[in-house]
Amino acid sequence: MAGLLVAQAPAAAAAGIVTDLGVAGRGGDVVAGGSKVFVAADDRIMVASIDGKVINTIPGLSGAVALASPETGRKVYAALRDSHEVIEIDTTTLAITRRIDLTAYPCPSTLAQSYDRLWIGYGCGEAGEGGVVGLVLSATTPTLVRVGPGTTQPPLVAIARNTLVAGEPGVSPAAVRVYDISTTPATPRGEIRGDANGLPPLRDLALTEDGSAALSALADARQFDAWDTTTLTQARPYNSSGSSEHGLPTAVAASPDGAYVVGGWNSSPGDTAELVVYDATTAEVIYATDHQGKALVAGSIAFYGTLIWGVLKEPDTGRMHLWRLPPSPFHSSALTLTAPSEATAFKQLTFSGRLTLSTGSLPGVQTLELYRWLPDGTSSFQEVTTAADGTYQFTDTPPSIGAFKYQVYWPGNSWFRGRGASVTVTVARYHPVLTVTGPATGVVGERLEFSGTFGADGVVFPQTTITVSRKVVSPDGTVTSKALVKMAAAADGSFGFADTPTTAGEHTYTIRLVGNSVVEPANTSHGVTVLQPTA
User: Fold this and answer.
1) Superfamily (CATH H level) for 2-324
2) Which of 103, 194, 343, 511 is the most exposed place for a label (fewest CB within 10 A)?
C-alpha cells in the first residue's frame, strides 16, 4: 500500500489550503474536532471550518497558547497562560462551559488529553517553579496531581493510553521523562536521554497511538526520532540520511491510528515550511508538501480523519495562517442519509444510511458524528455507530414544527477521505386522534364521568386547551345547548370531565381540541341516553 501511495502522490505535492487568520502574536497551537478547527491566538481562539474558512472567534481570552481535544470532539480545552486557568469550550455552541483554576500552578502553556484525563505543562520562567500537573475532567472539583520534578520552562507533554511523556523545551542536554499513569500518583519509568552527549533541545514531543513510542523533534538533529517508551532507547529515525534539505525539525505528530508519523520542518534562508508524511513502521516518505514565505509554528500539527493541519506565521509580522494539506493520496468514501417521507411533531422519526468505501471493502464498525439543527437555530450533537457493513440507523422525535436539518459526518481514517451527508426534514403539526369514553346511559340527577386522550405513549405536549359543550334533545323534541367546560389537557394528552343531567333525553357531548402552533385541532362527540329515575 505504501508503494501505491508513493505512485499516487509524488514528494512535491500541492500545497493544500492556506487561510489568513487575520491575527498575530503568541499561540499557534491547533486542534480539530466537531467538524471545526481551533487555533490558539493569544487573546482569542480562531475557529475555522473543515475547508479552512474562518467561521467564528472566541474572544476575550488572556494568553491562549495551547489547545487539546478529546477523541469525541465534543469539547476543546484551552490553556490561558496569563489568567492561570484552563477553559472548556463546547465545539457545537463555542460557549465556554467551564473554567479550571490553576493559580497554584501558574502560566499553563502546554496541554495533552486522553479521554477523561488532562495533563498541563506550566511555569512562568522561574527555576524549579514549573512542571506538569494532571487532573480528571469528570470530577466536579478536580484534584490537581503534580507529576515529576520542577522545571524552569513549561514542559512539553504528550499522553497515549497509560503512558505520559514530558520534556522541558529549549534546554540542553534535554531529557524526556516517561511515566506510567495507570497509577496515582504516576509511576516513573525512566528518562530518554539519547547518547552520551544527551539530547539536543526539544522543539516538539508526541506519542504514538498505543503509547509504545515517543516522537521527538530536536533542534539541530536533522531528523525525527521514535523512542521506545519501555526500553527508553531509539526505535527508529525518520529522515535518517542526515541531509539538510528539509531544514530543521520543528513539529511532529502521529496519526490517530498509528499508521503515520508527520514531521514539520522550517528552512532558512527562504522561510520555507515543509510537512512530510512517513510510514510509521518503515520510515518511508510517502507524501510531502511545502509552503514558502512562512514558518511552521513549533508543535502545530493536528489530525482530523485524513486531513492534516498546521499553523504558519509570517516571519516579520507574526501573522498566522491555517495550513490544510490536501487529502490525497487517500481513497474516497461515500455516505448516504435517508429521511422518512413524512414527519410530524412529537412522533419518532427513523433515519438510515450507509458508509461505503471506494475499494469495495467493508468499512467495519465506524463512529459517525451526527448534528441536528432546529428551526430556531439551536443545535445538538451525538455519535452514531455503524454496523460492520457500514449501515447505520438513528431515531429522533422533533419537539416542534418547521425545517429540521440533520448532518452526519465520517472523518475518515488513514486510507480513506471522510465524507458527510445531510437532509432537511419539514416537520408538520402533530395530528391528534381524539377519543372519549363514558357511559352510554344515565339517570337524571346522577353524575356522569368521561375521560379522553389525544396523545400517544411517551409524548409530552405543550399546554393544550379542551372545550366541552352539551346538546340535549328532550322527549318532547325541545333542543337546548350549553357550553360546559374549558380546560387544559395534561402533558400526556389526557383529560376528563363530568356532568350531572337535569332533564331526560338524548345528550350529545361535543369535545373539541383547540390546537396550537404544534398540534392540529380535532373534535369528537359522545352520546348518552338519560332517563327519568324510576319510582
Assistant:
1) YVTN repeat-like/Quinoprotein amine dehydrogenase (2.130.10.10)
2) 103
